[in-house]
């Protein structure tokens, strides 16, 4: 049994996913050391240069080094993925746990709130909130927290509804344990596995949403290095300088693929089916 467990822990899918995420995290942490140039330094004589030994990923229309901007951009995009998942996870877990455990009026009110949010397309609702708050990362995080918690709440609620009828939960109530203790010490730790796995898939959605918001000019603001901004800036030069959009676009795809692999591997290990 221990050998099988070790095999699952060291599955190739998990190792590849962790390797991809680790490489990007390492690049982000060591960006000032490994980046060959300042990411916002503009060199007029080096505008739109194709990939070369001096600039492995080429330069953009301002003469900025694409590789350096991708390395520094990893800091922003990883931060967006982490914070954009953390707050929806916490909010959704708390609301879903309350709805599933107490039921009745509490459940009805919270579920109607979820229905209202789900009635609007995800990206449209996010854009509306950011438009009201103003462009920037803070607005993106607030929008994600206000919209993204719904999926976590539904997952946790469904698990709590099943677990609160389990023998150990009934026994805890019979022994006179308080409701908060039963919920947060006995039910929630056993209900959260599915949400932890979903976090990895949700990180992909947050990453792509962040890139889309930045592409539309409502997220990270220039001249900060961020992959979505880089794709947007290179769009006008796609026919003559394809490298401006290709490399940051590939970075988004590869990092999202890494998160997806980790989510799949964790789902197999925990027996969770998304």
Automatic annotation (TrEMBL):
Residues passing through the membrane, by range: 85-106, 113-133, 139-156, 187-220, 240-262
- Membrane topology per record: Multi-pass membrane protein
Q: Which SUPFAM superfamilies match?
A: MetI-like
**Protein localization:** Cell membrane
Q: Which Gene3D superfamilies match?
A: MetI-like
| Database matches in InterPro entries | BP-dependent_transpt_permease, MetI-like, MetI-like_sf, OppC_N
Q: Name one Pfam family in it.
A: OppC_N
**Keyword tags:** Cell membrane, Membrane, Peptide transport, Protein transport, Transmembrane, Transmembrane helix, Transport
The residue ranges of the ABC transmembrane type-1 domain are 74-263
The record's comment on protein family reads: Belongs to the binding-protein-dependent transport system permease family.
The family database entries (PANTHER family) matched by this protein are listed as:
D,D-DIPEPTIDE TRANSPORT SYSTEM PERMEASE PROTEIN DDPC-RELATED, OLIGOPEPTIDE TRANSPORT SYSTEM PERMEASE PROTEIN APPC
Please identify the protein, giving its name as recorded.
ABC transporter permease
